[in-house]
């Protein structure tokens, strides 16, 4: 997952924070959670109230082989995240891509990662959507806020 994280973050330019092994009781433990802010990047954007209003969570599950289990886990993350992705090795992702209609129906992204080249193939990326549970989202944001110094823009959880 570390190689994927480096490749993914190298392409992202929005103000963001990354957390590893992010757990919300009852919804599983995401391998990565990427938190980004919508809108401008003024100093006021990182104050507590502004953060809470504009934060967007992407939860990422990585699996080596069992893509079906990964899909189930990634779907659970939709309860607290605006977008959920399953990242698999290139060959496993090619196999899972035969079931792309299922990924689309569940609104879970399917990405493949080639660890030798560092390339990410995006088979399907859902648009961000309101999390399925407002309570789970609030719990996630509260956990994140408790880890951050909201007086400045952080880089890592």
Keywords:
157 residues; alpha/beta; Trna Endonuclease, Chain: A, domain 1; six-stranded mixed β-sheet; 30% strand; disordered C terminus
How are the SSEs ordered, and which strands pair?
Layout: H1 2-11, E1 16-24, E2 28-37, H2 48-54, E3 55-62, H3 67-77, E4 83-89, H4 90-96, H5 100-106, E5 108-114, E6 119-124, H6 134-147
Parallel strand pairs: 3-4, 4-5
Antiparallel strand pairs: 1-2, 2-3, 5-6
Write up what this structure looks like.
Helix content is 36%, strand content 30%. Mean pLDDT is 85; it is low at 150-157. The chain contains six helices and six strands; from the N terminus they run αββαβαβααββα. With 157 residues, it is α/β, with parallel strands linked by helices. It has helices at 2-11, 48-54, 67-77, 90-96, 100-106, 134-147; strands spanning 16-24, 28-37, 55-62, 83-89, 108-114, 119-124. The protein is globular and about 40 Å long. Strand 5 and strand 6 (119-124) form a beta hairpin. The longest helix is centred in the C-terminal third of the chain and has 14 residues, at 134-147. The protein has a single domain, classed as Trna Endonuclease, Chain: A, domain 1. It has a six-stranded mixed β-sheet with strand order 1-2-3-4-5-6, sandwiched between helices.
Helix-strand string:
HEEHEHEHHEEH
Which strand-content bin applies to the residues? 25-35%
Number of strands: 6
Main sheet specs: 6 strands, mixed
Summarize the structure.
The chain has 157 residues and is α/β, with parallel strands linked by helices. Helices cover 36% and strands 30% of the residues. The protein contains 6 helices and 6 strands; from the N terminus they run αββαβαβααββα.
């Amino acid at each position: 997952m570390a190689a994927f994280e480096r490749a993914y973050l190298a392409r992202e330019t929005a103000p963001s924070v990354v957390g590893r092994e992010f757990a919300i009781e009852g919804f599983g433990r995401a391998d990565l959670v990427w938190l980004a802010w919508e809108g401008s990047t003024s100093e006021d954007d990182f104050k507590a109230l502004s953060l809470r209003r504009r934060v967007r969570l992407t939860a990422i599950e990585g699996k080596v082989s069992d893509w079906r289990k990964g899909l189930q886990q990634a779907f659970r993350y939709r309860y607290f995240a605006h977008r959920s992705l399953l990242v698999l090795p290139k060959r496993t992702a090619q196999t899972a891509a035969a079931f792309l209609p299922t990924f689309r129906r569940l609104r879970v992204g399917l990405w493949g990662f080639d660890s030798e080249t560092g390339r990410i193939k995006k088979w399907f990326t859902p648009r961000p959507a309101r999390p399925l549970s407002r309570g789970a989202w609030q719990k996630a944001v509260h956990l994140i806020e408790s880890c951050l110094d909201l007086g400045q823009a952080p880089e890592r959880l």
